[in-house]
Every structure is written in structure tokens, then in C-alpha cells.
Amino acid sequence: MTANIIDGKAFAGTVREKVAAHVARLKEENNITPGLAVVLVGEDPASQVYVRSKGKQTVETGMKSVEHKLDVDTSEADLLALIDQLNNDETIHGILVQLPLPKHLNEDLVINSISPAKDVDGFHISNVGLLGTGQKSMVPCTPLGCLMMLRDYHGSLSGLNAVVIGRSNIVGKPMAQLLLGDSCTVTIAHSRTKDLEEVVRRADIVVAAVGRPEMVPGSWIGKGATVIDVGINRIEKEDGKMKLVGDVDFASVSEVAGAITPVPGGVGPMTIACLLANTLTACCRANGLQEPEGLTA
Ligand code: GUN
Predict the structure, then answer these.
(1) Strands 94-97 and 35-41
(2) How far apart are the first and last CA of the chain?
(3) Domain ranges in the chain?
(4) Can you tell me which atom of ligand 1 is nearest the CA of 97?
(5) Among all residues, which ones are annotated catalytic?
(6) pTM for the full model?
(7) Which fold has domain 141-268?
(8) What is the DSSP string of 151-199?
């Protein structure tokens, strides 16, 4: 058996098209342009790449993009003052502070200073609580992208056994909440889980978000399961070349699974597409307008 490939790159393209079409309508009918502000503190190379990509795609979908690049030794007070200014800026509907922050800045404090309505990352404690209680919230982009692909592939997720491997605040925990919201029976597994293989083998849906290259082999996967690979790990091959791999071993897992997201080209492109979707959603909510269909949880 060879698994169906869930093409996240193509799916992200259709999400961006939907966002762009809705943005064009907002401009024409309401004279409103959604705006996203991205704040980067310091010069972490990976973060710089992400921020550039976010800005580019924001503009390509017709939205306003503002980038604030701050010195690595920016004080907490200065960063909080900038966030306060963006919270009060009516042309900005989404605010994203790129993580990780330099060590001297308190990440929780900074994230929780963003207005929850503009928190397009869905990391603010209010949004975490709203999601956990099944209320309307801003939903973290990576799990939202995974949910969209799962809904597209399965139709209804109701009653399916879902195992999320990884318990991070950014992916594992919100992913579990979203799957529960779609009536899956959800298990959150992690590095201390007893009989992890057995737990994973029972799953109809496996979401791997541990950050360990090729940790999940095909022998752990139940026949026909859908596997969503959130991992993006850079490893060195035998010939010395660098290669991107996920948290699952694609070669062996794709022999057993019913469907699988590749790395690269799976979850990764969906994350930024969902950031654009969240910015549009935040803008619609801020203006009391109908939210885009199919782009929210
Ligand atoms: N750094 C890595 N992933 C993310 C993300 O999804 N949001 C933010 N703000 N920073 C990140």
C-alpha cells in the first residue's frame, strides 16, 4: 500500500486564493484593507527568513504588511510600548511577535500584552482559554492548517481516534483541542508516554509534533491511518548534504498509512497561509463583518 499524499503546498495556494478574493471584496465593498504587523527582535537567521516570507505573502494577498525590526537588546518596556501602539492602531488587525525572543524578554508577558482580538498567533492566554472552552477565538496557525487538511481529506472527523504526539503550547495542545472540537477521541502522547507505539498504532489520525527527526517508523502506524507530520528537521545525509525531514520516517510510514503530509510541502506552507487567514478573520471581526467561510476553526 502506498499512502495518498496530502499536498499542503497546493492546499496553501487555495487558502491564499480564498484570502485574496475576500480581501479584494473587503476593499471594494467596505473600503477596508486588513493589516498585519510582524515584530522581530534580534537577528536570528531562521526567524528572519520566516518574517520575510510572512511579509511577502501578506502583500501578495492584497493586505497591508508592516515589519518592525528591533535591536537584539531592545528593552521589555520599549517592546511593550510598540505593542501598545499597534494595539491602538486601527489599520492593524493582526499582530505577530516572532518567537523565540531574546532571553532577557519575558515571552508570556509580551504575548499577553497583545490585544486578544489582534493575536493572530492565538497564543494569548484569553484565546487559549476560549479555544479550550469551545468559544470563538483566534486559533494557532499550524494546528489550524492541520485541521483544514484533515477536514478536507476526511470530511467529518467525528468519532475518529486521534493521537497527537507532542504537548507544546504552539502545536500539540491546541491541536488536541481542535480535534476534540471536531468530535475526535483524542490522546496527547509525549516523551514519557508508556507504550507509545501501541498508543500510536490505535490511531486513525496521527499528528506528529515532537521535533525529533524521523522518530515515528511505519511499524507504529495502523493500516490506513492519516499521518500529519508537523516536524521540520534539518539533518545531514551520508553524503554530507543537508536534508529537511519530518518527525515521521516518510519511506516506511507511507507504506502503511492511508494518507500522509510530506516534508517539505505539507504542514509548513499551511502555517503562513493560516496566518493570512487569521489576519483576514481578525479584520472581519473588528469591523463586525461576516467571517470568511472555510478559513476558521
Ligand atoms: N516561531 C516559530 N513558529 C512561530 C509561530 O507560529 N509564531 C510566532 N510568533 N513565532 C514562531
Answers:
(1) parallel
(2) 32
(3) 31-116, 141-268
(4) 9
(5) 54, 98, 121
(6) 0.97
(7) Rossmann fold (3.40.50)
(8) HHHHS--TT-EEEEE---TTTHHHHHHHHHHTT-EEEEE-TT-TTHHHH
